[in-house]
Amino acid sequence: MKVTYYLEVTSSWSFWAEPMWAELKRRYAGRAEFDWQIAKMQPDDFPVSNHQYDWFLRRSSMIMKAPFVANSAYYDYPIPGGYPAASAVAVAARDLGATGDEVRLALSSAAYRDGKKIGRMEVALEIAAKASGLDPARLRARAESPEVAAHMEATTKEYFSHQISQRPAFVLTDEIGDKAVFAGVMSIEPLAATIDAMLADTQAYADFAAKHGIPPAA
């Protein structure tokens, strides 16, 4: 089966979801395929000031029982078309071979722990290059390419096709055609229970086919 994680690097809820994502990958290693994709935040999704953002971040930090309050200093006021630089750099790094979560985690941690302004391309590039070892010029060229922009538009459209609006979101699919969608869920228990159920169903189908063969023709 496959688990697809839809996120925005500059989403604070995506930042708080990362430990759960890491635990899912650890728990189901070798039993499920894991992938992440960008679901770009829209201009109206952003707070109107750092003062307002601080309120939201205090709330999310409290709900997550976090040992620190996320930092809003990274945040510049929204720009037309959204705030895509950090996500574009994360996608570019993956395209260039940094296929793990390290670049994405380095960017979000730099923002929410250290207040680094990752919405600015030059800042995001510096952090990503250090985390990945990739050449900054090559990374910039890819991050600013039409291909990366088109990819993020496509995955954002894909995200909205699931009729959801909250990030993080997780879409679970299996080879027998089942699908489960979670949006805004921050605890591992419901996802793990669903993955277990889907894996069990898929195995039951396989066991039946091994004993009884393929379905008879109509």
Structure description:
The chain has 218 residues and is α+β, with helices and mostly antiparallel strands. Helices cover 52% and strands 10% of the residues. The chain has 8 helices and 4 strands; from the N terminus they run βαβααααααββα. 32% of the residues are buried.
List keywords for this structure.
Glutaredoxin, single chain, 4-stranded mixed β-sheet, 218 residues
Provide a short characterization of the protein structure:
The chain has 218 residues and is α+β, with helices and mostly antiparallel strands.
Helix/strand layout:
Layout: E1 2-7, H1 12-27, E2 33-38, H2 50-63, H3 85-95, H4 102-112, H5 121-132, H6 136-143, H7 146-161, E3 169-173, E4 179-183, H8 188-212
Parallel strand pairs: 1-2
Antiparallel strand pairs: 1-3, 3-4
Q: What's the alpha carbon Rg, rounded to whole Å?
A: 19 Å
CATH superfamily: Glutaredoxin
The low-confidence runs, each spanning 5 or more residues with pLDDT under 50, are none
Structural class: alpha+beta
The fold-level CATH name is Glutaredoxin
Number of domain units: 1
What is the CATH architecture annotation?
3-Layer(aba) Sandwich
- Quaternary state reads single chain
Q: What's the end-to-end separation, in Å?
A: 28 Å
Please tally the helical runs, counting DSSP H or I stretches of 4 or more residues.
8
Mean pLDDT: 94
Q: In which range does the helix fraction lie? A: 40-55%
Look at the structure and give the CATH class: Alpha Beta
Strand percent estimate: 5-15%
The strand order across the widest sheet is 2-1-3-4
Overall geometric form: globular
Would you count the extended β strands for me? 4
